[in-house]
Amino acid sequence: MIKLNYRPEIDGLRAIAVLAVIFYHVEFYFNDLKLFSGGFIGVDIFFVISGYLITSIIIKEIKQNNRFSLASFYMRRARRILPALFFTIFISIFFAWHFLIPSSFIQFSNSIISSIFFFSNYFFYFEGLVYNSDQSLLKPLLHTWSLSVEEQFYIFFPIILIFVNKFFKEKLLFVFFLLFFLSFIVAFYTSMNNLSFSFFSTLSRGWEFLAGSFLAYLEINKEKLYYKNHNLFTVAGFFLIIYSLIIFDNSIVHPSIKTLLPVSGVFLIIFFSNTKNFITRFLSNYFFVKVGLISYSLYLWHFPVFAFARNKTDSLSDFDKIELLIITIFLSILSYLFIEKPFRKKNLISSKFVTAYFSIFIFFFITFNILSNNKNGFDNRIHVFLKKTEREILEYSMSDELGSCFDRYENFCNYNNTAKKSIILIGDSHLEVLSQDLYNKIDSENVNFISINRGTCIYLPDTKKFHLNTQKEFSNCTIKSKKLIDKIISNKESPIIILAGNYFEHFYKNDNWNYANESNLEPIDSFIKSINELLLNNNKVLLIYPIPSPGFHVVKRLMHEIPKSTFNASEYLINNPLTFDMDDYYSKNLKIINKFDNLNHKNLIKIFPDKIFCNIDKMQCNAHKGSDIYFRDQQHLAASGVELLNQKIFFEIEKIIKE
User: For residue 140, is the peptide bond before it cis, meaning its omega torsion is within 30 degrees of 0?
Assistant: First the structure.
């Protein structure tokens, strides 16, 4: 087995990488400024280091022994990565049992399988997660995506390297350049067209490993140059890393050309580092080296610790975060001392024991996953009356021969197309949850019912909605699709148009997108203009005001708050009602409500959800009535809430139809 010369500055780089990632996920703020907003580049630092170390091992072993043992290499990687990973996942299961609702528990158990078989990067991509979104921070094993990328590199790169060394030995450097270039082109193209895929994909991350491979080749072939001004290059490299950590944020396209900055920084430090170097000595200090040594365990533990805490409570204070950091450090030290270190030593733990350890855990995880899916996330953990609400995904309850009606950009669901009276629903998921129940109520009226509801998209004709980082239009909310909607409206005779949505998110809280139109109107004013134009054409517009939202996951809160020993949960809820402040609703939506209040027209009907779900005298909104739960999560209505709101909507529709 080849052993590389120990380079403490690399552990120092690992320390910076893991601390950057941890603080990025912990989310400390100073005057509304997120500290380490570019901390996600810590993963890119790890990738370059991994490429450098793995390539060094392989090339040196081939040079020394004129051969390379894949089996031995894979076993060493397995000893290095799997014991601590499996143990972390195993302990996480116990916390998942207490803190995750059934649907999240099933997703968690599925993510275990993807993690232990190294495809979690694609698993989370197909789950539709946006990295570091509020939802992603609740996924205990999301961080394993980067481990899967590394393992995929470890599996395939040695095979490529052995093949090239055997048949194209003199072209090895050219192959590195070629693979680097191809991967970088893939990253550039996919980031412009599918940023989420680019972020998670090994194909668009390979060039970062190959930057490290190029480093290893130069060093092994004695092409490392010791310039007199080596300090200048390492300081420049360190600056590029720190600059990226501070200046980068979620709005940048990543991976992309900008990612070259931290990657180049790591390259410069490793390439020009020597013992006389200031940056080398700084990175080799006691603190950085010790943090670097436990960096893998720190990375493994920090995400589940914080994810479970966020699943338990609605928000974490800075004090909570400091406590959780201490817990993470404690667990990481134990994991390093009693799991990582022992399993690396062949003379301490035999290969047979390692194989048995892996086999037992893999069998356990597969069995656990099967049972979790078959038992609906072990939903007996929660009270019976919560099970039904937790399972309700009303956005996808309405469908036709093409599948779910929700989130289409064309071929919208169109029922009873020959009927004279038409009802057209145009909104986002907040309106889609109403659609099936509303259709059931009006079906007997023989009305043409058209559902045009799309995720994070409301009725804004001639307004382009585009991603802030890529500047590309949202695929389900294009100008083209909006023109199609206008054509549908114009082809109907005085239709009833129902408008609703999570207005605040569209108009005032959109960190990931923006709007543009020829009139340079603000989104709220563009929406008001659209309503006025609809009314001018003698259409009936039924405008649903902002729906009060709890801001906390109702089912999750009830799961945690109702004592498991409670026999009559409904009685418990009557005596301990779950409410939320109406002041929060008004303060958040005041501008929107004022704009809506100023709209007046004989064909405009207004629906006020606050009068349905809130006690205006007490300034309190209700999350439920007894065991009838109004909200499925932080903001979407559950079936009981849908029923209440649709009763009012149907009442207004009936009056219009009978005119």
Answer: no
